[in-house]
Amino acid sequence: METYTLFFFLALLAEVIGTVSGFGSSILFVPLASLILDFKIVLGVTAVFHVFSNTSKILLFRKGIDKNIVLKLGIPAVLLVVLGALLTNYIPQKKIELSMNIIILALSIYLMTGAHNRIQKNNQNLYTGGAISGFLAGLIGTGGAIRGITLAAFQLEKDVFIATSAVIDFGVDLSRAVVYLSQGYFHQEHLILIPFLIIISIVGTYLGKIILTKISEKVFHYLVLSVIIITTVIQTIHYFQD
Question: Which of 82, 181, 213, 228 has CB 3.0 to 4.6 Å from 108, enough for a Cys bridge?
């Protein structure tokens, strides 16, 4: 019971931070939950959890959805997430996770410095960001950082950023959840978690929305990048400790 209590606490914490940052809860939830449960079980639980989580965000931030970005970034993400999820049985997780952390850390620091040569606001970057984020979401359980970096380059307002990201993430998570379930990553014994995850997704999203009303646009963008940097550093340290 203590294990699940800690699991639910981490899920709530990740949901609040994920809402505020706009990247979704998996960027924190996957590495933290992996310390408690088997990694492949975490993949399955996270996918199911995110379906509820993103539904809450869509309902609370629906007025900010940018349909153009949803289509251009979301379609490649949904297509590639299936491929990534199917490959989870064949490609070593740890090495890919380390590579992703290093790349994301470098990109985040680059954006944090305010360098002039930022990611350009064009369709090609939307397609590329969607494809990479979807593939990584399917393969290692979290691709929100890549999607977040892509969206951050467009300097969207808070509500638009969160709502648009949530719609894309919903399609990604629903797709990979089907693949994970077919591969046995979500067992019958975990069905009891669903009611709690639904409550956590609603409460966490609501608390995140309240926090967002207290944060300026400038602080928000720095917070988004700070969450990515901190998370990737923690994941990288954890990799070398194993």
Answer: 228
Helices (H) and strands (E) in the chain, counts: 10, 0
Q: How far apart are CA 203 and CA 180, in angstroms?
A: 26
pTM for the model stands at: 0.78
Q: pLDDT per residue over 118-147, tens digit each? A: 677 888 989 999 999 999 889 888 787 788
Q: Give burial (CB, 10 Å; 0-12/13-18/19+) of 203.
A: middle
Distant-in-sequence, close-in-space partners of 114: CB < 8 Å, separation ≥ 6: none
CA-nearest of 4, 24, 6 to 14 is 24
How many CA atoms lie less than 13 Å away from 237 in the CB half-sphere? Answer: 7
pLDDT higher than 60, residue 39: yes
